[in-house]
Design goal:
The protein is an alpha+beta fold. Helix content is 55%, strand content 20%.
């Protein structure tokens, strides 16, 4: 064993001459532990939020959407679908069309999105479920209302359901090639609530759904606006997008779910970098405790240092004794803080004790990347502070003669 390392272990674990030295060493370990605990806990929370947003995008958006670059253009036939389905990596394709609609009820105006989907939509979006309560009515547009939308935000629809009567709806159609009149901008249609759908609270509030065929008949256009695609697992979306661009051409706007997430991830990564810098600064400030602890240890062992130097111990080896002690203080503080942070995060991840707004558990995710970064940052800062605390040892030995 390295003599300097062996002596540093004895100095670190054996009782010091004065109790004040023990207290200072303990406080330096505690300060590094608190810094590590704070940094690791916040980074685990950020990873939890990132994972939560990733699940949100997976549940609320298709893997790939395809539409014309010119938003006023529509798909007229299924030739594009045949090309897409010939690609092995694609699991399901759904035709959809969205329209803004307007209701007037009880002196209130309601604007909402109506989305027409085909039978393949449930394969593309696994969370989507619809429930039929009544039979289809041929004289009306049969719509499905979000489960969380009926009572709280759309009382008129619950009234219509109970009264079993249709409601007048206006479909906003700005693409009609007519004169600039209200009749050309709005299409009037009776609406009949056939059932409910459940997607998620956000989507339940944002949309009304109907069958694409019914919406096409209402618009008197057998067209659709967007293709939504579900791909197989472990397929590289970036490579698949390039393949679709190659097969379909540049006139289509192809967007992957990863590209939708990209903006959010850039914001979160920027915030995470800011957190890193903030806690590096905090750790450097608490590092003064480490600096003072090493300096006090040097004063406490000044006579022993002079004895070692007199027996032929080099100044370099003497300095390494306290460098190792600084590393041990840093390591104990880092591991203790990381241990408590890991335990707290593990309990929260498994039992979900802490919650946001009483219902949503606080998201936490323990990752090897964050763990590795935390340990590296703390050990590097501790090593630098330990190194700079050795500069006055030679003067101490000289004046102790």
């Amino acid at each position: 064993m390295n003599p300097s390392f062996y002596i540093s272990i004895r100095y670190f674990f054996y009782k010091k001459k004065t109790n004040l030295v023990n207290i200072i060493v303990f406080l330096s370990i505690l300060s590094i532990g608190v810094s590590t605990f704070s940094l690791s806990t916040i980074l685990f929370v950020f990873s939890g939020l990132e994972n939560l947003n990733k699940k949100f995008y997976q549940n609320h958006y298709p893997d790939i959407t395809i539409s014309y670059s010119n938003e006023k253009d529509f798909f007229i036939d299924d030739n594009v679908i045949k090309i897409i389905k010939s690609i092995r990596e694609i699991r399901a394709v759904s035709k959809t069309m969205e329209r803004k609609i307007f209701f007037h009820y009880n002196n209130h105006e309601y604007f909402i999105l109506l989305k027409g989907v085909d039978i393949e939509y449930g394969k593309v979006m696994k969370k989507f479920r619809k429930f039929n309560l009544k039979n289809n009515r041929l004289d009306s547009l049969n719509i499905y209302v979000g489960w969380s939308y009926v009572g709280a935000y759309f009382p008129m629809l619950s009234h219509i359901i109970n009264m079993n009567m249709p409601l007048q709806m206006f479909i906003i159609d700005s693409n009609k090639n007519k004169k600039n009149t209200l009749s050309s901008f709005f299409m009037k249609k009776k609406v009949y609530v056939r059932g409910f759908f459940h997607f998620s609270p956000k989507m339940d509030r944002k949309y009304l759904f109907c069958d694409l065929y019914d919406l096409q008949n209402t618009m008197k256009k057998k067209v659709f606006h967007t293709l939504e695609i579900k791909i197989h697992k472990n397929v590289n979306m970036y490579n698949l997008k390039h393949l679709l661009v190659k097969k379909l051409g540049s006139k289509f706007n192809i967007i992957t779910r990863v590209e939708r997430e990209d903006i959010l991830y850039k914001v979160m990564n920027t915030e995470k970098i800011f957190i890193y810098f903030l806690f590096i600064l905090m750790t450097m400030i608490t590092g003064f405790n480490l600096f003072s602890a090493i300096y006090i240890l040097q004063l406490d062992k000044i006579k022993e240092l002079f004895s070692l130097w007199s027996m032929g111990f080099s100044l370099y080896r003497i300095k390494m004794i306290f460098f190792y002690m600084g590393l041990m203080i840093t390591t104990f503080g880092c591991l203790s803080g990381f241990f408590f942070s890991y335990i707290l995060s593990f309990i929260q991840e498994k039992y979900k004790i802490f919650k946001i707004a009483r219902k949503i558990p606080f998201p936490v995710k323990i990752t090897l990347k964050d763990s590795y970064m935390i340990i590296c940052i703390i050990l590097i800062i501790g090593s630098i502070i330990s190194f700079y605390s050795l500069r006055k040892i030679s003067n101490m030995i000289f004046y102790s003669k």
